[in-house]
Amino acid sequence: MQGHQSPDYKTPLKKLVINGGYPLSGRVRISGSKNAALPMMIASILSDHDITLNGIPDLADVRTMITLLDTMGMKIKKNDKGSFAFNASGIESKFASYELVKTMRASIMVLGPLLAKHGEAKVSLPGGCAIGARPVDLHIQGLEKLGAMIEIKDGYILASSDRLIGSTYSFPKKSVTGTANILMAATLAEGQTKILNAACEPEIAQLGELLNSMGAKIQGLGKDCITIEGVENLGSAEIEIIPDRIEAITMVIAGIITRGELRIENINSSHIQQPIELIRKCGANLEIFDDYLYLKGSNVISPISFQTNPYPGIPTDIQAQLMVLNTVAEGDSKVKETIFENRFMHILELKRMGANIGIDGNTAIITGVPKLNSAQVMATDLRASAALILAGLIADGETIIDRIYHLDRGYESIEEKLSNIGAKVRRID
């Protein structure tokens, strides 16, 4: 893909129609992780050699990232399905425009690699889901600690540096994209960098694994203290994207609430241990193996109270989906959101479907009801979209979900996967 062409794909239909009440049964395969793929695509900026990534999911965010890298001059070759080779030797532009960045917050991660490799970057302040303030100040502070000169002007971050110098930066609060940004920048910095209170997510660990296979010297991956010894340059590498742990848990919940029986394939069991331990409390039969999971739902669903936390805790990205499970559980539960302040927007839509949910600050109080009712609802963000699909699967009648473009940012072929295991779901305009 050269010549600054946009990806060739059709705009999907805008609404999803679900006829609820059908138990899910069969096998479903989990796609590669978007949250692992995007930073690794960006990491290719750091090298002049081919970086091959296999198992990239076909998602709107991935297409946006391909377009962004393409406009910078990245050579992108599509191999097989989900396999791309990225070569940054021809990058000329260090500019990430508002038009592309506004749709996807992950674009902010180009800042560190561009700065480290080319000494300058101009990146728009990002957009993405409206689930709360996700400030970029942590990214900027970390890069300034490495010696970058940064100013914000006309909605853009302008950054420059002759060469970044290793330093120690402690994140005031954990940030996945912030950790990724500083980690990538530090690989080409002079001397040693220490990142304290670093994000421990598997997606960060895999980014580090890719960088190490490119020739970086990184220790402490998966821990909250990461040490990087800067190198002069990075080489080629090839890696398989890890499975999407959020999609995996979403499918687990879908199987449980429909009283279904599923074999969920292509998982990494070590990445979903705490969520699975929590979900077991609802009474479903769950057997977990290295690369697949078997579940059989039970007639009675017990409520499960929890709070969201950074990895290895319960991810904020499955909070909305787990709340749907609680809406039809027998009893009361509490869900506390500690990561994003606006991540309860799905509650109003679930209440339209008959859910009994109250809000006290950052805690939702749910009283289970025998069943949900169909309604016309609207998705407000990516994970809210998934929650509304789950609600539609168990609601009486026909549920119509509007604004599902959010869904296409993070779930590959979701209606096809669900249809193959017995759901009645289709798209309409």
Structure description:
- With 429 residues, the chain is of the alpha/beta class.
- The chain has two domains: 15-31 and 243-428, UDP-n-acetylglucosamine1-carboxyvinyl-transferase, Chain; 34-240, Enolpyruvate transferase domain (UDP-n-acetylglucosamine1-carboxyvinyl-transferase, Chain).
- The protein is built from 13 helices and 26 strands.
- Helix 4 packs parallel to helix 6 (176-186) and helix 5 (137-145) runs parallel beside helix 6.
Give the tags.
single chain, 429 residues, alpha/beta, UDP-n-acetylglucosamine1-carboxyvinyl-transferase, Chain, 2 domains, four-stranded mixed sheet, disordered N terminus
Please specify the SSE layout and strand pairing.
Elements: E1 15-19, E2 25-29, H1 34-43, E3 51-54, H2 60-72, E4 75-78, E5 84-87, E6 95-96, H3 98-101, H4 111-118, E7 120-124, H5 137-145, E8 149-153, E9 156-160, E10 168-170, H6 176-186, E11 192-196, H7 202-213, E12 217-219, E13 225-229, E14 237-240, H8 245-257, E15 261-265, H9 273-280, E16 285-288, E17 292-296, E18 306-307, H10 319-327, E19 332-336, H11 346-352, E20 356-360, E21 363-367, E22 372-373, E23 376-378, H12 382-394, E24 395-396, E25 398-402, H13 414-420, E26 424-428
Helix pairs in contact: 1-2, 1-7, 4-6, 5-6, 6-7, 8-10, 8-12, 10-12
